[in-house]
């Protein structure tokens, strides 16, 4: 599975219409919708701002006034074909006065997204399960030792009244198995799933 490393933008002109594709790395629908809102403001004078996104908690697309199925759907199909995840695409169109027809619109919006993908830096990502370890300060050495000896990756550490580590694994059973011997001292619970860069 793949995503993009950072936001990128490309522009094409077809029969005097300008198509600007903006690609953003996003993880959730809320992030996607916020980016779409900001671009709608930035390009408020555009004829259309069509969108497509594929993120961890769902996917969606919108034709923004173009004939149904001629913009958002072709855009999301390009994202799927390129196996992109955690990404939001917005194609801003400034109408140039020449109608493209349904087939022409499908090709234009597809090409716009493909051009932007071609300019983006692509990362390979994998889905991991995130587990939360909670323990007293007296158990830090034990937790660190197990993390190190089992090549686990800690992606977040918090120090409050207790210590909390967020640990990732491709198979959460590994983490449960490693820490079950510390039952009562180190509590382990599933937190969420995340897509992380492939090592």
Topology:
Elements: E1 2-4, E2 8-14, E3 17-25, H1 29-42, E4 48-55, E5 58-62, H2 72-81, E6 87-94, H3 101-119, E7 122-135, H4 140-149, E8 153-159, E9 163-169, H5 172-179, E10 186-197
Helix pairs in contact: 2-3
Helix content: 25-40%
Q: What profile does the largest beta sheet have?
A: 5 strands, antiparallel
Average pLDDT for all residues: 92
- CATH superfamily annotation of the largest domain: Impact, N-terminal domain
The CATH topology of the largest domain is what? Ribosomal Protein S5, domain 2
Distance between the termini: 13 Å
Order of helices and strands: EEEHEEHEHEHEEHE
Q: Given this structure, which CATH class of the largest domain is correct?
A: Alpha Beta
Name of the CATH architecture of the largest domain: 2-Layer Sandwich
Number of helices: 5
The domain tally reads 2
**What is the CA-based Rg, rounded?**
22 Å
Q: How would you classify the helix and strand content by structural class?
A: alpha+beta
User: How much β-strand is present in the residues?
Assistant: 35-45%
Shape field: elongated
Instruction: Identify low-pLDDT runs.
Output: none
Please tally the β strands and state the result.
10
């Amino acid at each position: 599975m793949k995503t993009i490393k950072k936001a990128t933008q490309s522009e094409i002109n077809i029969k005097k219409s300008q198509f600007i594709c903006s690609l953003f790395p996003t993880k959730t629908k809320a992030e996607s919708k916020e980016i779409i809102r900001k671009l709608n403001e930035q390009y408020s004078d555009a004829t259309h701002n069509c969108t497509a996104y594929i993120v961890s908690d769902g996917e969606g697309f919108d034709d923004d006034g173009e004939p149904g199925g001629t913009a958002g759907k072709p855009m999301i199909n390009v994202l799927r074909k390129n196996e992109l995840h955690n990404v939001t695409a917005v194609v801003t169109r400034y109408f140039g006065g020449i109608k493209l027809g349904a087939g022409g619109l499908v090709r234009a919006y597809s090409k716009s997204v493909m051009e932007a993908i071609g300019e983006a830096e692509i990362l390979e990502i994998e889905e991991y399960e995130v587990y939360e370890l909670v323990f007293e300060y007296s158990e830090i050495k034990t937790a660190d030792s197990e993390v190190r000896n089992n090549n686990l990756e800690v992606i977040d550490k918090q120090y409050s009244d207790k210590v909390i580590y967020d640990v990732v694994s491709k198979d959460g059973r590994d983490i449960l198995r490693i820490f079950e011997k510390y039952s009562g001292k180190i509590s382990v619970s599933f937190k969420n799933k995340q897509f992380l860069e492939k090592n």
